[in-house]
Write a structure and sequence with these properties.
Bound molecules: ligand C2E, calcium ion
Structural class: alpha/beta
Number of strands: 17
Distance between the termini: 79 Å
Largest sheet: 8 strands, mixed, barrel
């Protein structure tokens, strides 16, 4: 291991060190002269010369000792600063934060006054950092820190405890209103897009909270619990937050199991694709099939994509899995009727991969699928991560002839301005609106608005999660062109020669 070099050693320290060693050399020189010239040096008696040498020796030794200890002190300060403060942001680093949490925990034990440990994480920061490059990633972290500082009182303890993870110690008595109000405001501030040197970057944040002394005193346990709450919040969607609950430990154990098992499952070939038909409401014909990933575990049976896609995204496993899905769907398309397309879900993480377009083009070449038979389903959040890059990729996909559907439309962003910048071909109305259409007039209004919007933009609309005939009729009346849902067909494995794949499945009552 190389010696720690202290770049901040002061000039004074350097001069004193050089002077003391110089004086040491001078004394040695005089001593040498005394030996060479005998007892009398320059007319001084041997005793006098001896006394001068002894005095100079003592002086050099004490200066050297003083400068040594000053150097030790400076080095200790240096090492302390290196390990206690984060270089990029100047915030406290994780080790220092652990110390501060321990102090806060023992103070709450004495006073009984609660202190909250708030854990804030930029979702998928690692993937963002890889996609936008490290200098942009650093700029993002600095801008994020500046916003965090601006949103908090200056005497609140704040640290950076992971690449995109921050922790705050917030005493209950400093809350001006409620904890909810504080966190909602933090999330709102932190999720506004960040102007970086190269582009405007959007991020999602998730927040986990533990309360001391209620949730414990041990800083390591407290950090683990706040992180469990955070992961729970992340699973709940964009800009979520959660307060720690004891049962979150079990959820985390399951997540851990999924993480450790995903790789093996992929290698072992546990994955398969099921296909769900999409119908044109005016003709009642099946026009396409959405490929939906299925994991059949040899011991635990079916595991839902809702349980493993997010884990695959966090661990990076989504890249090989997503590529496999795309390739398999393009190969399977040969067994689908010629006039049907195959719709493939693309994770935001996959979409952000540097070579996303290259992968799509390679798979198209390998499988020979016609571009018009491929549709990619992308969520709004995938497009919003880096708008300029997303706009460019969408344009390139359109130029190749691949169509793009905006999945889960209406659940992500309220700002519709981005729609103008992006080339896409379909809006996919989220299941949550369809399921409430029959009972909630607001949902009906949202559906009509989305249909109107898509007409204005010159794109098609498809509604997902259609479970009843009544929903289908309402959707048709609202002007929606395509439908998908259990009412028309559940996701099913592809079986060669299956008549369900070729026959129109919409009942006549809906078509006419
Ligand atoms: P999604 O893209 O919104 O897919 C639609 C989900 O709704 C599917 O759930 C489908 O089985 C379900 N569904 C379809 N019709 C109905 C209905 O009438 N009623 C109800 N209640 N549900 C219906 P699934 O297959 O469990 O997939 C869940 C999510 O996992 C998908 O939501 C998608 O986001 C993700 N996913 C699935 N396959 C893939 C994949 O290959 N790649 C990626 N990145 N994500 C995938
Ligand atoms: Ca989808
Ligand atoms: Ca959806």
């Amino acid at each position: 291991m190389p010696a720690v070099r202290n770049p901040s050693r002061s000039p004074l320290f350097r001069i004193v060190t050089i002077a003391s060693s110089g004086m040491g050399s001078f004394v040695l020189g005089v001593w040498g002269l005394k030996f060479a010239l005998g007892d009398s040096v320059g007319g001084l008696s041997s005793d006098t010369v001896g006394a001068i040498i002894a005095a100079l020796c003592a002086l050099a030794a004490s200066i050297a000792a003083a400068s040594f200890f000053a150097g030790v002190d400076e080095s200790a300060d240096y090492v302390f600063n290196e390990t206690h403060y984060d270089k990029l942001t100047g915030l406290m680093a994780r080790t220092a934060m652990v110390g501060k949490i321990a102090e806060a925990a023992s103070a709450t034990a004495r006073t009984g006054r609660p202190v909250f440990l708030i854990d804030i994480d930029i979702d998928r920061f690692k993937q963002i950092n890889d996609a936008i490059g490290y200098s942009n990633g650093d700029a993002l972290i600095r801008a994020f820190t500046a916003r965090l500082k601006a949103a908090l009182p200056s005497d609140v303890v704040l640290g950076r405890i992971g690449a995109g993870e921050f922790a705050i110690l917030y005493p209950d008595q400093m809350l001006s209103s409620s904890l909810e109000a504080l966190i909602d405001r933090l999330i709102h501030d932190l999720m506004r897009p960040y102007p970086l040197p190269s582009h405007l970057q959007s991020v999602n944040v998730s927040v986990g909270v533990v309360a001391m002394p209620k949730d414990g005193y041990d800083p390591v346990v407290l950090l683990r619990r706040s992180n469990l709450a955070l992961q729970n919040a992340r699973a709940s969607g964009i800009g979520g937050w959660a307060v720690f609950q004891p049962e979150m430990g079990r959820v985390a154990d399951h997540r851990q199991w999924v993480e450790s098992e995903l790789h093996i499952a992929f290698e072992r070939g546990d994955f398969d694709l099921h296909y769900q038909p999409q119908l044109d409401l005016s003709s009642g014909r099946v026009v396409g099939y959405e490929a939906l990933l299925r994991w059949r575990h040899p011991e635990r049976g079916m595991i839902s994509p809702a349980e493993f896609i997010s884990v695959a995204e966090e661990t990076g496993m989504i890249a090989p899995i997503g590529e496999w899905v795309l390739r398999k769907a393009c190969i399977d398309a040969r067994q689908l009727p010629d006039d049907c397309f195959v719709a493939v879900n693309i994770s935001p993480v996959q979409f952000m991969t540097r070579d996303f377009l290259g992968i799509v083009e390679r798979i198209m070449k390998e499988t020979g699928i016609e571009p018009k038979r491929l549709e990619l389903e992308l969520t709004e959040s995938a497009m919003m991560q880096d708008r300029d890059r997303a706009a460019l990729i969408l344009k390139q996909l359109t130029a190749i002839g691949i169509s793009v559907a905006v999945d889960d439309f209406g659940t992500g962003y309220s700002n519709l301005a981005y729609l103008i910048d992006f080339s896409f071909h379909k809006l996919k109305i989220d299941r949550s609106f369809v399921s409430r259409m029959e009972t909630d007039s607001n949902s009906g209004a949202v559906v009509s608005t989305i249909v109107g919007l898509s007409r204005a933009l010159g794109v098609r609309t498809i509604a997902e999660g259609v479970e009843t005939e009544h929903q289908a009729t309402l959707l048709k009346a609202a002007g929606c062109q395509e439908v998908q849902g259990y009412f028309f067909g559940r996701p099913a494995p592809l079986e060669i020669g299956d008549p369900a794949l070729t026959q129109p499945t919409a009942p006549a009552s809906i078509i006419h």
